[in-house]
What we know:
Blueprint: H1 2-17, H2 21-67, E1 72-74, H3 81-112, H4 116-119, E2 120-123, H5 131-135, E3 141-146, H6 151-167, E4 173-181, H7 201-209, E5 213-218, E6 226-229, E7 232-235, H8 240-260, E8 265-271, H9 283-287, E9 292-299, H10 307-311, E10 320-324, H11 327-333, E11 337-341
Amino acid sequence: MKTILFLFCIFLPAMLFGQTWQQAVDKALGQSAKKASISLQKSKTRLKALNQTLEKEAHMRKVLDIYYAPVTPYSISDVYQTLAVAWAGASNKLNIIHRIIRERQLNFLRKNDQKLQTEISVLPFSQAADMARRIGPDTQYVFLGEEHYLEQSRTLVLQVLQNYQLRYPGKKIIFLTESVRDSGVSGVEVFSKKGAEAEYSPLMRKISARGIIVAGLEENPKTDTFYVQNEHLIKGAVASQGIQVRNLHWAKRIKEWRAKYPHAVFFIYTGANHCVYDMPSSLPNLLGAQKTYVSIMQTARSLSLSFFHAWTKFKYANPGLLLFKNKTWARHIGFDEQIIFPQ
Length: 343
């Protein structure tokens, strides 16, 4: 049948336009070669895209294998051994759930990969401190999720609060953080001069001096357990179960502060993993609040296990400000914006 059609394509022009047999053959062959070339180019493009997708997905699986590897108790004290065993089991169950969520996230990225460039804005780092403009006046909770112990984060947090007060001078601000010990909803500010908290005390005092209520979220749970994951020793506080237990306590305390100050804007300053949208036990999800804004503050070197950046092959892992244009993407990826500090 194809042969007949090919001959028909040769004879018809020859009869209608007085072409010679050879001219008709050359023209038909030329058209056929052009179509074959276009088809081949499309096939190469599709194959290249498929290979890129397969490469990205292979890398993503490696990230998942590292991030959600099983944890096993490491006995340092017999006092916490029973708790360590229980928490290891709970953490491994949570890791299975979290991995399923990541698989769904991977499916979302796969389906919407071509739309990504139109849904994200890349802005210079100089615009990071003007978060007040991006937040708007009606946001109830602003989550500032940091890579811990960065002076750049602390400097930026103070600038963000200063700019917010300038833009919305009459708005009551409550500043809650894991860097201060929980003393209840008393309004009593306790800034430690010992341990890791001491590094954050100067910032807390500066914030308090601006008339902002500063209060703690971190209680002292029995998280002095240790685990082995990927041949590394980790503390119970950062294992999946530890993070969930701490978040549940923090969410309860935040709700109590909200009841006391229903019209205030809450700035909640914690580690990044506590406040991303894409984990079921994160603070935004536990609070069930709709008017939220999540800003993640990190250095480029800490993004090696970032799910989003692994998918984009670290195209956006440069100093600056990444901003998602709509909440659907923010909820799927985990944040409204990400601030990446210069090295």
